[in-house]
Predict the structure.
Amino acid sequence: MGYTHYWTFRAPVNSIEAAKAERLYQLALIDCVKAIRSLSQKEGGLSGYSAHEKAGLPKYGGIKLNGSERTGIGEEFNLRALYSDISNGTGRDFCKTNRHGYDKAVTACLCILKYRLKDLIEITSDGTADDWLEGLDVARTTLRRKVQLPCTIREHASRIGLKLAYLNKGVSA
C-alpha cells in the first residue's frame, strides 16, 4: 500500500473570484519555491525541481519536484503555472511519495496552498498528522505565519488523540 496525498482545486464562481484565486495561487507558488529551495539547500535529496518563468506566463512556470536516488523517488509532485489551468479541468491531483525524503517538501507546499487558497482547495492524505509535522514546520518557517494543517488532517489528529497544542502553535505574524 502506498502513501499518497490528494488535492482538489475548486473552480471560481465568477471572474472576480477567478482573479483573486489566480493572485493567491501565484503567491502560493512563490512561497512553495522558497520552501523547496530552503529544504534543498539544507538537506539536499531533491531532483526534478523546477520553478521558472515561461514566456507569456506570469511568475513561475509551475513546479515539478521529486526525490533522488539517495532519498527515494516516488511520483512527481506537480503544480501548474496558472490556477485557471487547474480549475478549468477536474481540479483533482495526487502524489504518491511513499514517505520518501521529498515528502516534507510536498506536505509543506500543500500546507502553503491551503493557507493561501483557503476553501479553494481541499486536501486529504493517506498519512496521519504525525506524517505532516515536518512539512508544517517548513511551511511555518517559510511564511513566518501560523499555518495550520489542512482540516481533514487535523480532524484525523483529533480522532486519534494527537495533542492539538502542537498543531496549533505557530510563528507570529
User: Anything to note?
Assistant: Strands lie at 4-9, 47-50, 63-66, 77-79, 92-96, 121-125. The helical segments are 15-43, 83-87, 103-117, 129-143, 151-160, 164-168. The mean pLDDT is 80.
